[in-house]
């Protein structure tokens, strides 16, 4: 957690700086449906675990641990996963009857995570910390299964993250989530052309 430099009066650690660079590379790989993005996610998530824990963002820190596990799963899905038709996974959309499931999962998980953080941690932003945590879990699952709608989940997460990380003085990470928000729109457009 050694300081690399200061940005807007807040320290930027080498861990945050390295995670920033790896995270940009990861999303660019995801845009191109390149499975190398998954190991980049594993390393950047490990670094962000340290950064978020140090900032008392326990929901986001714990989420990084889940990202590591789900990144191994997502990597496997992209290399060896199959859809219900038995064919290798390809970019696709959720059917009209399936779109409500991720939304319902978010509506249930956000307050549950927020309540847990409020009762069992010393975070000063339990509900705000819970929002990107819940949205990221859904986004990660959708991304791993190559659903186009993952980009909408990430857009919500990234917009919320910009404000949350700025509030906590994690300026470089706030900039990263702003870039992620833009890349979420780019990803949506790119994957929409590929969706079957």
Task: Tell me what you see in this structure.
The protein has 196 residues and is mainly alpha-helical. It has one domain. It is 72% helix and 5% strand. The protein has seven helices and two strands; from the N terminus they run ββααααααα. It has helices at residues 14-31, 37-54, 58-80, 100-120, 126-144, 150-167, 171-194, and strands at residues 3-7, 10-13. The chain has a two-stranded antiparallel sheet. β1 (3-7) and β2 form a beta hairpin. α4 packs antiparallel against α5. The longest helix is centred in the C-terminal third of the chain and has 24 residues, at 171-194. It starts with a strand and ends with a helix. The model has no long low-confidence stretch (mean pLDDT 93).
How many separate structural domains? 1
Spatial extent as radius of gyration: 16 Å
| Low-confidence runs of at least 5 consecutive residues | none
Structural class: mainly alpha
Shape: globular
> Please, how many helices?
7
Distance between the termini: 45 Å
Mean pLDDT: 93
Q: What is the succession of H and E elements?
A: EEHHHHHHH
Tell me the major beta sheet.
Answer: 2 strands, antiparallel
Query: DSSP strand (E) fraction?
Result: under 5%
Work out the number of β strands.
2
